[in-house]
Specification:
This protein has 159 residues and is α+β, with helices and mostly antiparallel strands. The chain has helices at residues 6-13, 18-32, 61-72, 124-140, 144-157, and strands spanning 43-48, 78-83, 98-100, 109-113, 118-121. 11% of the residues are buried.
């Protein structure tokens, strides 16, 4: 678990107090577990290319994180795409967001996570705007296979 959580620990340590790190890492690991449970959630992510090249302290932490992305991308319910650094201005440039789909009309929500707070948007017209933005992002990002190739190349570049 330590190795698997090293990236989460590094990311959380940037803004949390030392006594907050371990519980927040546990939450993040539990959140990831929904991808490997018997009835997993469908997960689509678009990650900016810059996130693949970030220097993370610790031997092999970034390489392990990129391998983790490649591993979960093999799940049939997971799609990961990379937004290339050369992409023209797109809706993701205003900040990241998560669309939480609950499988019933009117129940979906958007989660905006910030440094010290989170905001849930539940108004259906606003959720639709984010869903449309996500579809535009999907069309702009690299296709799945090219995205995985880029992740693999970046992983090999991290020693």
């Amino acid at each position: 678990m330590f190795r698997k959580a090293a990236y989460a620990r590094a990311a959380i340590s940037m803004t949390a107090t030392p006594d907050q790190v371990a519980p927040l890492v546990e939450v993040r690991m539990a959140r990831q577990a929904v991808l490997s449970r018997p009835d997993p959630l469908k997960f689509r992510a678009i990650i900016h290319e810059a996130a693949l090249t970030t220097c993370v302290p610790g031997a092999g932490v970034m390489r392990d994180q990129l391998q983790r992305l490649l591993d979960i991308a093999t799940y049939p319910h997971v799609t990961i795409q990379i937004m290339p650094a050369t992409a023209e201005l797109h809706p993701g440039a205003t900040g990241g967001f998560t669309i939480l789909g609950f499988g019933q009309p009117g129940l979906d929500a958007v989660l905006l996570e910030h440094l010290k707070s989170s905001l849930y948007i539940e108004e259906s017209t606003e959720v639709i705007r984010y869903a449309e933005a996500f579809e535009r992002l999907t069309a702009t990002a690299l296709p799945f296979d090219e995205s995985l190739s880029l992740i693999s190349s970046e992983k090999d570049a991290h020693k």
